[in-house]
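Onboarding guide, step 5: your first structure request.
Type a short instruction followed by the sequence, for example:

Predict the 3D structure of this protein.
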Amino acid sequence: MQIAKLVHTTDGGWSTTEFPALDSPRTLVTVFGASNRIDDPSAIGALARAYPQSVIIGCSTAGEISGATIRDDSLSVAVCRFERTRLRSARSAVSSSADSYAAGIEIGKALLEPDLRSVLVISDGIRVNGSELLRGLNDHLPASVVVTGGLAGDGDRFQRTWVLADGGPAQGLVSAVGFYGDHLRVGHGSKGGWDTFGPERTITRSAGNVLFEIDGRPALALYKEYLGERARDLPGAALLFPLALRATRGDEKRLVRTILSIDEAAQSMTFAGDVPEGNLAQLMRANFDRLIAGASDAARVTAAGDHPDTPSLAIAISCVGRRLVLGERAEEEVEAVHDALPSRSELVGFYSYGEISPYANGRCDLHNQTMTLTHFEER
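The system replies with structure tokens like these:
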């Protein structure tokens, strides 16, 4: 593998005078940038023209990660040319969350081949129900295929997101890259670090990713009781108090859900992924040191068993809620990830509206409020 990292800022331009000569059908170009880059896509266009044979994937963010640094209003780019791994791209249009399952099916069918090893998925962050998208993918891909990725972001605004298509940013898309062959090792890890508090309650009425009632009470009214004065800042304040879900009291697997929007008239809340009826829900709040330790743990799990002297690419996708909670300490979690990775691993990524990764092993899940890592190494 040959890897180069690039950064573009509005005031300083590109971090290099010439784009690295790595263009090929086996080259992956990842591009993570500010949501306002859809208004001026000239820098992205220049990158696309420099890599006409390569597979380019990327999206808008709630902050861009490059090495141990977090930036805003920039582009964080990695150009990775594989020696033996074959790549293929696929995408699907989504106009609303109702299209999510079909998009997963379409992408799964387009990428499935006997030697498919991994899929990196980047999705619109507002119009997509991430759980349904992944259900479509899981229904059409073998459990042996590692599926990771994330949902595009728009800072803390939740107004518009973009995903790259045909060399430029566009709204209402899900994009994916398939990795093929026996020479690729893909590591993955997803960790949280939040603390649960308050009673565990039962979801008594929901529809997909819309939550109407908990313990027979209007969900939004109950949630506001817990938030107190912070309820004035909804839905943004909800990023600081996500929900932990599990199927039964004996289930050790907990998935975290972040609120995307609220409906005062219906007293409902819309989440980035499904909130199934009958599941148990419990509020969560931040523990700063545990959030940072969780990020480090995710990196160690991701890169376990890899060769420190081999070039590798690590893609970090962390939730916007973590960044808002950590504030000025947000860079500490990125530094913790960077320090835990192998010495020759290049790190890029973004802050998202949802993270995609297996919970431990097997089928992928939608996560919120986690640091999720994917690590690519060729052997």
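Each response can be followed by summary notes, for example: Residues 288-303 form the longest helix (16 residues).
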